[in-house]
Specification:
Largest sheet: 10 strands, antiparallel
Helix content: 10-25%
Number of strands: 10
Strand content: 15-25%
Distance between the termini: 45 Å
Structural class: alpha+beta
Radius of gyration: 20 Å
Order of helices and strands: HEHEHHEEEEEEEEH
Number of domains: 1
């Protein structure tokens, strides 16, 4: 009951803290009268997921602060400015993290109000410490020594091209390929993430949920309309996704809300609830911008030619 009340409070926080939807008369609509959410939507952003410690008392940026923060973020992230002497695999040409914050808030997290992700549970904290010990001296894109089947490491799903690193679900701004194409019919919605071409089919009819024993990498999604907002609830995850570097697991429940607030903005609000990871549910919000370009092919490592060396390296570390 406590977690249920927490989730309801998080949903209420969305209504209080996110921009109001456009007037119903101005929302584009489909031939059958539903809000038209279709198109390619760009979710890149320099707004941090969590409010930085030095902005703890600042809920929203002034216009000048937003410009200064964006400029500093670009400078800090730039690989072309790296003077450490280390090998930089990609320079700035390959990245598309955005050039500005996309919300006046100082974090994408809108609930809790402090803009910070809630604390980990004791179990999750212990698991993270154990993983850090097991992976000491191991790079982020390498499997945990001896764990190349079950424990791929925090970057393993993306290296193995199983899931895109920003597609989650849920979707989060990242280094590149921050695009999602949404298609809809009366009875279903399709969410196709550019990264790895991950596709989720969201049924809007009254068909039953999947058997709880049938678990999927992307979970089992069901949707409904709450006024002009599409609400997508997802459960039955197989195991971790790339969200929060694989912190979540099969107990994750997602509530995603898609609201067309203008011709060029699709508001994306997500409530994350995994009682095995965080002490309470939490919510973040991303304004997605319309992209007039199509999705282009994202080829991971074609033919998986790198897989042999990845696994051979993991075996050698045992």
């Amino acid at each position: 009951m406590t977690r249920l009340l927490t989730v309801l409070a998080a949903v209420a926080a969305i209504a209080a803290l996110t921009p109001l939807a456009a007037d119903a008369q101005s929302v584009p609509r489909t031939a059958w009268g539903a809000p038209d959410l279709q198109g390619v939507w760009d979710f890149r952003s320099l707004t941090p997921m969590e409010r930085p410690a030095d902005l703890a008392d600042t809920e929203v940026f002034t216009e000048e602060e937003a410009a200064e923060f964006s400029e500093e973020s670009i400078r800090r992230r730039s690989r072309d400015n790296d003077t450490s002497g280390r090998v930089v695999p990609y320079n700035d040409f390959w990245f598309d993290e955005g050039t500005s914050v996309t919300t006046e808030r100082t974090s994408l997290v809108i609930d809790p109000p402090d803009g910070r992700i809630p604390p980990l549970t004791t179990g999750a904290s212990n698991r993270r410490e154990a993983q850090a010990m097991a992976r000491k001296g191991t790079g982020g894109h390498e499997p945990t020594p001896g764990g190349f089947v079950e424990d791929l490491g925090p970057g393993g799903l993306q290296v193995r091209c199983i899931l895109g690193f920003n597609s989650g679900p849920p979707m989060t701004p990242s280094a590149y390929n921050n695009n999602m194409q949404l298609l809809q019919t009366e009875n279903m919605v399709v969410l196709m993430a550019e990264m790895n071409h991950d596709v989720r089919v969201v049924y809007l009819d009254d068909r039953p949920d999947l058997d709880p024993d049938i678990r999927l990498w992307h979970g089992d999604s069901r949707g409904h309309w709450d006024g002009d907002t599409l609400v997508v609830e997802t459960r039955n995850f197989l195991r971790e996704t790339n969200f929060q570097r694989g912190m979540t697991g099969p107990h994750l429940t997602l509530t995603e809300r898609f609201t067309r607030v203008s011709e060029d903005v699709l508001q994306y609000d997500v409530t994350v609830d995994d009682p095995t990871v965080w002490t309470t549910a939490w919510t973040y919000s991303v304004p997605m911008q319309r992209n007039d370009q199509p999705l282009y092919e994202y080829a991971c490592h074609e033919g998986n030619y790198g897989l042999y060396n990845i696994l051979a390296g993991a075996v050698d570390q045992q």
